[in-house]
Structure formats: structure tokens, C-alpha cells
Automatic annotation (TrEMBL):
Belongs to the ZC3H12 family. This is ZC12D ribonuclease. One of its GO terms (cellular component) is cytoplasmic ribonucleoprotein granule. A zinc finger (C3H1-type) spans 251-276. CDD domains: PIN_Zc3h12-like. The lineage of its organism: Eukaryota, Metazoa, Chordata, Craniata, Vertebrata. It comes from Thalassarche chlororhynchos. GO terms for molecular function: hydrolase activity; mRNA binding; RNA endonuclease activity; zinc ion binding. Transmembrane segments: none annotated. InterPro entries: Rege-1_UBA-like, RNase_Zc3h12_NYN, ZC3H12/N4BP1_RNase_Reg, Znf_CCCH.
Amino acid sequence: VHQSKLDFFCKLGYGKQDICKVLENLGQEALEDDVLKELIRMGSKPQALESQAQPSPLKLVARGSCSTSPGSKWLGEDESDSSDYLRAIVIDGSNVAMSHGNKEVFSCWGIQLAVDWFRERGHTYIKVFVPLWRKEPPRQDSPIADQHILEELEKQSILVYTPSRKVKGKRVVCYDDRYIVKVAYEKDGVIVSNDHYRDLQNENPEWKWFIEQRLLMYSFVSNRFMPPDDPLGRHGPTLHNFLSKKPVLPEPKWQPCPYGKKCTYGNKCKFYHPERPHQAQLSVADELRAKIKVPLSLEKEEEQ
């Protein structure tokens, strides 16, 4: 009898120690209702209720599940997930390194400065292309500075060596520019270089448009990597929109009228007048056309 009652209340979720205490106080032949009342009086709770009272730990939830609340976040996912809104970055390593070395030294530190700049912005896909022969010891005609940086970037899966080999003592080098443009085009990303790739533009019309629209030029100012704030010119997108997959359009701003309150154009004036904010920015002819269309549409509805 004792074992059967113990099993019964254990299935309900009560602890064995609490059940044994109640059975000792009430006796082995106590009714189940009396035992249950005594357990409740003692303040004992089933384990299921206790687990509900305690804050549940963060659980992994499958994407697309309807059970998650709208405000909940995926485990390990930040609000600013760069892969969602930032473009892939493909860096012309030779161009950046030679630019930082004043076209005399292949400065690997310049590549590191460019990579760090894009990392700080939150870009996760960053690839640097450098010819394989740059791993060789430096020579007098091609000096290299801070060559260990290339090894570190290769370990981080950021730097990629384009293939090259020697045939009868002569070095055969693959065209690294084609790698750069092809990867950037496939990833719908941005090319970081001061080269215009005119030969590749003539090869492929799609590459021509892509190079014209996605080439990010730069400068080095006192060991500081500085791309322009207007990569496509004064009337083009900002640097933030240029590097974003979903650019944020600026709010339209009305240019104030140079004549101010002395303006005699009235509604025909194409400029903004702060002294008359509720006035429609339409010409007189456009207002008359709008007034004529309204009664005509009403007449058609009545005929139908």
C-alpha cells in the first residue's frame, strides 16, 4: 500500500521525501484525498509547477517556428547582422599594398588597415587577392614590408593567393584582376581598388557596368585608410548606401526660395516657402486640372 501511494503521488510530480513525511503523520491507510490536502498544506508543489515558476533558460528555436514571440531574438544572432544589409568586400591586395608603399614597396600593413576598416563597419565577407609569388622572399626589384601579415590573414581565411608557377625558370602568373572582378560580381559586392580594370570592361559588358557602379577608390592619409564619402560623385549615393544592400533614401528637402517673402510667383514658385507651409506646391494650371477631374469622375459614377 505504501509503495502504491508513493508511486501515485510521484507521478503527480511530488517529491518522495514530502510524500513519506505525510504518510508517516497520517498513517499508511490514509485516503489519497487526505494525503493530497496535507501535501498542499505543507506547501509542496509538483516539479512541473516549480519549473514553470522558475525562469526558463534560453532555448534554441528553429527558424520559421510560430511559437516564438515577435520580440524574441535568435540565439547567437545580433540585431545588426551584417550579412543581411552589408555588401561583400573584395580587396585588390596588390593595388592597396603598393598604394600604401608609395608605389615603391609592397606594404602588407596597408592591406591590414583596409581589412580593419571594413571589419569595424561590420562586414563579415572580406576577401583579399594577392599573387602567390608574394609568398617568396623579397628581392631588391620587388621589396615587401611586413610580409608576416599575409600569413596571418591567410590563417583567418581572408587572404587568397591567386595561382602562379614557374616554367623553365620563368614565372607564369594568372591574372589576379580577373579573380577580383569575378568574385565581386558573383557576390554582388564591392571592389576596393584604384585600378579601373579597363581591359576587363571591354571583355564583358556586364562586368563593365559592375565595375563602373561598384568600384570603391580610396586614399591613405597618415596610415589611415580613407574611402571617399561620395564614391560615385557628388550626385551619387553616400558611402553608407554604397556599401549597403538596402540603401536608405534621404528625405526630400525643399530648397528655400531665394526671394523669400518678396516672391511674386505664388503657387507657381518651385521653391519652398516656410511662411506658407500649408500651401500646395502646385502651379495654377495643375490645380485647375485637378478641380476639373473631380466633378467628371463624380458624373461617371452617377451614370453607372
